[in-house]
Automatic annotation (TrEMBL):
The lineage of its organism: Eukaryota, Metazoa, Chordata, Craniata, Vertebrata. The gene is TMOD4_2. Keywords: Cytoplasm. This is Tropomodulin-4. Its main location: cytoplasm. It comes from the Eukaryota. InterPro entries: TMOD. PANTHER family: TROPOMODULIN (PTHR10901), TROPOMODULIN-4 (PTHR10901:SF9). Pfam families: Tropomodulin (PF03250). It is found in: Cytoplasm.
Amino acid sequence: MSDPRNIDEDAILKGLSPEELEQLECELQEMDPENAMLPAGMRQRDQTKKSPTGAFDRDALMQHLEKQALEHPDREDLVPFTGQKKGRKGQFLRTLHALLKKMLIVCFEL
């Protein structure tokens, strides 16, 4: 029996058919998909059979998205914005403002 360290893996892999390579890849993935030592891109096998459609052009994509966003009409607000503060804090501030106003009037009258 020969030493396992002397096995030529490249020669074995070159002798496999594409179907056998795909089956080997599936079996390797099933061994340990949660292995933290593997890079994230290698933890899951590539399941796409589609060839690349072309080079990625970020500027063209951004221009298209901006154009599409400008053409799409904004939806109306369900509750129109009035600028009025509501709730306990808003009520407190209105009351405080009214009291200070009364105090100033009283102070200037004296």
